[in-house]
Write a structure and sequence with these properties.
Shape: globular
Number of domains: 1
Largest sheet: 5 strands, parallel
Strand content: 5-15%
Bound molecules: adenosine monophosphate
CATH superfamily: P-loop containing nucleotide triphosphate hydrolases
Strand order of the largest sheet: 2-3-1-4-7
CATH architecture: 3-Layer(aba) Sandwich
Order of helices and strands: EHEHHHEHEHEEHHHEH
């Protein structure tokens, strides 16, 4: 299954892609994670992406498209994959169409107010786990590995609003793009638990 997870920052793409990865044995390809890993390693790609990421802007299409095109040739992608955070523009979607046939696009729908609250409250661990301050009850360390949690730079302050604006301007048009291709399924996440949303996603995937 070749899947795209679409949705605003904080809608739950990463959380659910991680679960689908485990249950359906598909690689989870997050362009944001790839950029952050490159940044940590100080690679030229990471350094080029940094300025855009810090401001909550999109990294230029050319950089992302080449990266994903290459990643999808790896052997682990032979039976499919979950794309999380790509495509984010019509240009990226058109490029993807030129080298891949996508089976389904899962669109996680969540209202703006909840998105801002979720992203501002998101806390990360270097092991990959993510939490929300509202559910941490004052704890500051990771339940899985005990390390200190931190907040992503771009989850802070005004950058969250910029990212939501960028999403609405550049990425939301992909909803119509994939709906027209009959590939899109909306999953309403408002007022739903993680388990309820995940069950709805699995119901859709099991139809493919
Ligand atoms: P994410 O972890 O998906 O929220 O991505 C973090 C940041 O990485 C974004 O705000 C962008 O600056 C950059 N980024 C990730 N994926 C893309 C993409 N497909 N196109 C452009 N920029 C991206």
């Amino acid at each position: 299954m070749k899947l795209i997870f679409l949705g605003a920052p904080g809608a739950g793409k990463g959380t659910h892609a991680t679960k689908v990865k485990a249950d359906y044995a598909l690689p989870h390809i997050s362009t944001g994670d790839i950029f952050r890993a490159n940044l940590k390693e100080g690679t030229p790609l990471g350094l080029k992406a940094k300025g855009y990421m810090d401001k909550g802007e999109l990294v230029p299409d050319e950089l992302v498209i080449d990266l994903v095109k290459d990643r999808l040739t790896w052997p682990d992608c032979q039976n499919g994959y979950i794309l999380d955070g790509f495509p984010r523009t019509i240009k990226q979607a058109e490029a993807l169409d030129s080298f891949q046939d996508i089976d389904a696009v899962i669109n996680l729908v969540l209202d703006d107010e909840t998105i801002i609250r979720r992203v501002s409250g998101r806390r990360m661990c270097s092991c990959g786990a993510t939490y929300n301050v509202e559910l941490l009850g004052g704890k500051t360390t990771c339940e899985k590995c005990g390390k200190e949690l931190y907040q992503r730079e771009d989850d802070k302050g005004d950058t969250v609003r910029t990212r939501l604006e960028v999403y609405n301007r550049d990425t939301a048009p992909l909803i119509a793009y994939y709906r027209n291709k009959n590939l899109l399924t909306d999953i309403d996440c408002n007022g739903k638990s993680i388990d309820e949303v995940y069950q709805a996603i699995c119901n859709e995937l099991d139809k493919i």
